[in-house]
């Protein structure tokens, strides 16, 4: 998932509410630079 896909989907109010309500864990990994960009527990 590119940075654009993350910004388009996970920055929406609806998605943020679902992630918080269901206490979902979220990991965003940048394949090109091989680093974890975001890790929410």
Task: Provide structural commentary.
The protein has 41 residues and is α+β, with helices and mostly antiparallel strands. It has one domain. It is built from 2 helices and 2 strands; from the N terminus they run ααββ. A hairpin with a 4-residue loop joins β1 and β2. The longest helix has 9 residues.
Task: Write the H/E string, N to C.
Answer: HHEE
Q: Report Rg.
A: 11 Å
Strand order of the largest sheet: 1-2
Report how far the terminal alpha carbons are from each other: 19 Å
DSSP strand count:
2
Range of helix content: 40-55%
Mean pLDDT: 88
Mass-distribution shape: flat
Helical segment tally?
2
How is the biggest beta sheet arranged?
A: 2 strands, antiparallel
**Which class best fits the helix and strand makeup?**
alpha+beta
Classify the beta-strand content into a percent band.
25-35%
């Amino acid at each position: 998932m590119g940075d654009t896909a993350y910004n388009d989907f996970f920055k929406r109010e609806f998605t943020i509410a679902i992630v918080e309500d269901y206490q979902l864990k979220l990991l965003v990994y940048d394949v090109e630079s091989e680093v974890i960009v975001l890790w929410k527990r």
